[in-house]
Amino acid sequence: MFGLTAEEKAEVVTDGDHPSQPKYSPVLPHAFTEHGTIMLASVLNSPRAVEVSTYLVRAFVRLRTLLAAHKELARRLDELEGRLMGHDEDIRSICEAIRRLMPPPARPRRPIGFCADDV
What we know:
Blueprint: E1 2-3, H1 6-15, H2 20-23, E2 30-31, H3 34-43, H4 47-101
């Protein structure tokens, strides 16, 4: 267990579901680490304490899973962004080639076929 700083308390109040309780309290709250909740679960024996400790441990496990998923997602986004950067250059060169082909020729071509004026 450890005490939160004033900045951490402000963040909890901002991001928490029930900010009114700690918001007006002059005392800085305390928090448990994952290992602290496991130690607490092993010490307390009442049914309610075991239930709450189990709930807290599951919450930490879920947080760890979410963080790992976000790291994997961030890695994949970085990989995708790296691949797309190369595609941007390819698309740019294709557009430039198309633009070079777009203007009409400088002088019109001779009509195809036989013309009486040519003889």
